[in-house]
TrEMBL record, chain A:
InterPro entries: Fatty_acid_synthase, HotDog_dom_sf, MaoC-like_dom
Protein name in UniProt: Acyl dehydratase
A Pfam family matched in the record: MaoC_dehydratas
Membrane-traversing stretches: none
Recorded superkingdom: Bacteria
Automatic annotation (TrEMBL), chain B:
Domain named FAS1-like dehydratase: residues: 10-136
Annotated organism of origin: Shimia aestuarii
InterPro entries per UniProt: FAS1-like_DH_region, HotDog_dom_sf
Gene3D superfamilies reported for this sequence: Hotdog Thioesterase
Pfam families xrefs: FAS1_DH_region
Name this protein carries in UniProt: N-terminal half of MaoC dehydratase
Length: 138, 155
């Protein structure tokens, strides 16, 4: 049975989502689409001068996937908040898996909500984003 | 110690207007792999009862960036310049959104950014700047409040 924000309880998981492989082309397009032109994500010469081996993905490209995970499940109008900590860099070529698990049913500003723990991980298990969403349950 | 200009704590950027454009929003939605057509297909958005395509969940960061570029074009420092961010060492630490209402293509919103404060972590190896950004519609009020930590890796 498909769970919904109305029926979900603690321990339920959201349909997972994968994104990638994240190519250099994806990073160039994300730089253009987002307006984030920080060269550390698109210019390997700049990245090397800054002491990195290579460019790496915008953290916000991965957060966009956490956003898709929760809005495709609950609808944007049900999402009260979305937050994340960027805990590891996402390398070029990565395939990220995004997951969500209901950890609490609570009342937030007078309305029933679900607290959902969100995660983005690389294929080797490295957690790159540690996030949370509050989703209206009714 | 540190690279950020900590004297800017408590300062607020000049309020800037940003108009959300359907083409730019569609390009963003496609780039992130969005599959819900209310974010890129006008007909689908209208069929769902929306006036135009709806911004995706993290589009607030794009609106914030556009506001910064608008300041730069007008000869004023954007937030990164104001706080003295050094792009060679800059990392994104956290990003938080509180949603108060949807943003649609065609909306002209006001963006205001506040330097909330500065902190050190990991024995000075990390230097953290916290920014708070409010995206407000002239009639619908506050739409999104964004809070983000930007980090200089110094160690």
């Amino acid at each position: 049975m498909t769970i919904t924000p109305q029926t979900a309880t603690v321990g339920d998981t959201l349909p997972p989502l994968t994104f990638g492989p994240i190519s250099r082309t994806t990073l160039a397009l994300y730089a253009g689409a987002s307006g984030d032109h920080n060269p550390i994500h698109i210019d390997i010469d700049f990245a090397r001068k800054a002491g990195m081996d290579d460019v790496f993905a915008h953290g916000m490209l991965s957060m966009a996937q956490l956003g898709r995970l929760v809005t495709n499940w609950a609808g944007q109008d049900k999402v009260t908040s979305l937050s994340t900590r960027f805990s590891a860099l996402t390398p070029v070529g990565a395939i990220i898996t995004c997951t969500g698990e209901v950890t609490e049913q609570l009342i937030h500003e007078g309305a029933p909500h679900l607290r959902v723990r969100l995660s983005a991980t690389l294929a080797d298990g490295t957690q790159t984003l540690k996030g949370e969403a509050l989703i209206r349950a009714a | 110690m540190g690279l950020f200009n900590r004297d800017t704590a408590g300062q607020t950027s000049p309020s800037t207007s940003v108009t959300l454009e359907r083409g730019a929003m569609t390009f963003f939605a496609e780039t992130i792999g969005e599959t819900n057509p209310i974010h890129f297909d006008l007909e689908a958005a209208r069929a769902a009862g929306h006036p135009d395509i709806m911004a995706t969940a993290t589009y607030a960061v794009v609106v914030g960036t556009m506001a910064g570029k608008d300041l730069t074009r007008r000869g004023k420092p954007d937030m990164l310049a104001l706080i003295g961010a050094d792009m060679r060492y800059l990392l994104h630490g956290t990003e938080q959104y509180s949603y108060h209402g949807p943003m649609f293509a065609g909306d002209t919103v006001d963006v205001e950014t506040e330097v909330t404060g500065f902190a050190d972590a990991k024995g000075g190896k990390l230097e953290i700047a916290t920014l708070t950004q409010r995206i407000t519609h002239p009639t619908r009020g506050l739409l999104v409040e964004a809070r983000r930590d930007l980090i200089h890796r110094l160690g």
